[in-house]
């Protein structure tokens, strides 16, 4: 059975804006993105929202619903009561383009800074068999749909614009971890992770893991193991001596 819901949607652009109130029909089984589309169709034809697959796989419709970073297409209206006011705002960490659409190019810049996969020279295709445990580790990280909800949530950049230069964010530290733990990657990424990607800024609050729509254990499986590797390199006296002797 349908009902009228009260929505507050942020409208505006880089110069400013505010919340606008709407009353809009909700049908059984709908998600927040359906309601935003109904608003566009009936009351706010110029309301900007980025979306694509409506199936939780493209990572486009990231926004904040009642202050919580979420995919609009995966947020069921049935999670709210009929008398609740539902507030939809753009991701806070990135610059506004218009309404619910933000400029996420920060993330692409960070992606470009990571040195690419570096297999051993001359390795023939099929000459190496990966262990299942190594395959599964990469596969978990590769479930990432680049919705950037983790990047948006992490307090290191969410509340500190000035940290953006020095911190790659959980999504890209996870990429560094994936490559660092890949059995065929020959690059040593530990110094890069610490000095250039800002791994030390992460104080393992796990907010990134909590908002991941793919349920990737970003903190436990990527960030903490990466930190352990960095610490091993820096503080283990035997590793330290080995590094000195063999320059690695
Ligand atoms: Fe940020 Fe995740 Fe670390 S939210 S502080 S990158 S555990």
Radius of gyration: 21 Å
CATH superfamily of the largest domain: Alpha-helical ferredoxin
CATH architecture of the largest domain: Orthogonal Bundle
Elements, N to C (H/E): EEHEEEEEHHHHHHHHH
In the sheet with the most strands, the strands line up as 2-1-5-3-4
Task: Count every beta strand, where a strand is a DSSP E run of 2 or more residues.
Answer: 7
Total number of distinct structural domains: 2
Provide a quick synopsis of the model:
By secondary structure, the protein is an alpha+beta fold. Helices cover 36% and strands 16% of the residues.
Search tags:
Beta-grasp_dom_sf; electron transfer activity; Ubiquitin-like (UB roll); 16% strand; two-stranded antiparallel ribbon; single chain; binds FE3-S4 cluster; 5-stranded mixed beta sheet; 2Fe-2S; oxidoreductase; Succ_DH/fum_Rdtase_N; 36% helix; Fumarate Reductase Iron-sulfur Protein, Chain B, domain 2; 10 helices; 2 domains; alpha+beta; 248 residues; 7 strands
Report on the structure:
This protein is an alpha+beta fold and 248 residues long. It has helices at 32-42, 105-112, 132-142, 149-153, 155-158, 170-180, 190-196, 207-211, 218-235, 237-246, and strands at 3-13, 16-26, 62-65, 68-71, 85-89, 96-98, 101-102. It is built from ten helices and seven strands. The radius of gyration is 21 Å and the shape is elongated. The chain starts with a strand and ends with a helix. The structure holds FE3-S4 cluster. FE3-S4 cluster (F3S) is lined by residues 153-154, 156, 170, 202-208, 219, 223.
């Amino acid at each position: 059975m349908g009902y009228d819901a009260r929505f507050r949607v942020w409208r505006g652009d880089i110069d400013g804006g505010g919340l606008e109130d709407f009353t809009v029909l909700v049908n059984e089984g709908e998600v927040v993105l359906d309601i935003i589309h109904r608003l566009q169709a009936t009351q706010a034809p110029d309301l900007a929202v980025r979306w694509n697959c409506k199936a939780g796989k493209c990572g486009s419709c990231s926004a904040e619903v009642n202050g919580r970073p979420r995919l609009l297409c995966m947020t069921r209206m049935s999670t709210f009561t009929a008398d609740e006011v539902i507030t939809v705002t753009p991701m806070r960490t990135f610059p506004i383009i218009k309404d619910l659409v933000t400029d996420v190019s920060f993330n692409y810049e960070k992606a470009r800074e990571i040195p690419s996969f570096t297999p051993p020279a001359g390795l023939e295709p099929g000459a190496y068999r990966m262990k299942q445990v190594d395959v599964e580790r990469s596969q978990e990280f590769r479930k990432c749909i680049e919705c950037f909800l983790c990047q948006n949530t992490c307090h290191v950049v969410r509340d500190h614009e000035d940290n953006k230069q020095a911190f790659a964010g959980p999504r890209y530290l996870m990429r560094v971890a994936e490559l660092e733990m890949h059995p065929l990657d020959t690059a040593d990424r530990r110094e890069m992770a610490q000095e250039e990607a800002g791994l030390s800024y992460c104080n393992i609050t796990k907010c990134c893991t909590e908002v991941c729509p793919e349920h990737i254990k970003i903190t436990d499986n990527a960030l903490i193991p990466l930190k352990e590797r960095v610490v091993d390199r820096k503080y283990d006296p035997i590793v330290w001596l080995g590094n000195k002797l063999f320059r690695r």
